[in-house]
Every structure is written in C-alpha cells, then in structure tokens.
From TrEMBL:
Pfam families xrefs: SET
PANTHER family hit by this protein: HISTONE-LYSINE N-METHYLTRANSFERASE SETD1
Record's GO cellular component terms: Set1C/COMPASS complex
SUPFAM superfamilies from the UniProt entry: SET domain
Catalytic activity, reaction form: L-lysyl(4)-[histone H3] + 3 S-adenosyl-L-methionine = N(6),N(6),N(6)-trimethyl-L-lysyl(4)-[histone H3] + 3 S-adenosyl-L-homocysteine + 3 H(+); N(6)-methyl-L-lysyl(4)-[histone H3] + S-adenosyl-L-methionine = N(6),N(6)-dimethyl-L-lysyl(4)-[histone H3] + S-adenosyl-L-homocysteine + H(+); N(6),N(6)-dimethyl-L-lysyl(4)-[histone H3] + S-adenosyl-L-methionine = N(6),N(6),N(6)-trimethyl-L-lysyl(4)-[histone H3] + S-adenosyl-L-homocysteine + H(+)
Source taxonomy: Eukaryota, Viridiplantae, Chlorophyta, core chlorophytes, Trebouxiophyceae
Domain Post-SET: 138-154
Protein name: [histone H3]-lysine(4) N-trimethyltransferase
SET domain ranges (all copies): 1-130
Keywords, ordered alphabetically: Chromatin regulator, Methyltransferase, Nucleus, S-adenosyl-L-methionine, Transferase
Amino acid sequence: MCGGRSADLAQCSVRPAVLNLATLNPSPTHGAEPERFIMEYVGELIGNRMADLRETLYDQDGTGTMYLFRLDATQVVDATRVGGQARYINHSCDPNCYTKVQMGPDGRKHITIVAKTHIPRGSELCYDYLMELEPEGEAMPCHCGAKNCRGRMN
C-alpha cells in the first residue's frame, strides 16, 4: 500500500510502464488504497493567455501531444516540455484515480492525483479528464474501452 499522505504531498512509488511504442504510463509499485495520494501533476505554471498562445504554438510546430492542465480560473500547468510522470496518466471513463487541487505546505495550489479505488500493484493509473467542450471545438473522441465509455472526453 502506498504510504503517501495528501497533507504533505509525499509521492507514492510509481514506475513507468511501456504500453506500446507511443505510450508511457505510470503504475504503482506497491498498489494504493482509496483516497491515497499517488503523485502531483507538475509543470510550468502559466496564465490563460500564455496557455492559449502555447496551444497554438504546439499545434503549429508539430509538437503533437500537449499537456496543459487547468489549475483554476486563471492558471494552467503546462507539462508539455517540463513535467513529471503524472502527465502520462491516460483518460478513462471508468477511472481508478481522480484529480484534486489542494494547498501545499508552500501555500500554493497543487494538482494531485489520488486513488479513487483500490489500485493493485502494477495497474495502469487513469483518471477522467473531465474536459469541457469549447464553443468552437469539436468533441474529442474517447477510446478508453470502459463499459461505461461516453465516447468522448469533453
């Protein structure tokens, strides 16, 4: 069982698992019980305007996958170029984790990944991205394979 506590943001021991040639996904080395802190989603903290600019830039320069995670109404964590293992956690409509914004001992907001269910050792970590459909955007198809799959991530 992961001994990390959400109060101190102590990280659970995880290892990257290669699922296919294009995907790296973290999995717990000792398993985790519900409500246990798994890891923090880290990256560069930027504002909304910069996030919009970077999204356009990443689209134009062929970056491909981008890792932008909204922290609150004005801040975004960009883990595209600099980030930790949490950026590789995939979406699922039937997740074993969830995200939670909480205050750290440094007085700043942190995005944490928390176990939603018992997660056996070596299992793929996943959470529901809960993406919003942007006014001019199209639905992003979901291929998670869960029995309750909504067919889209937003």
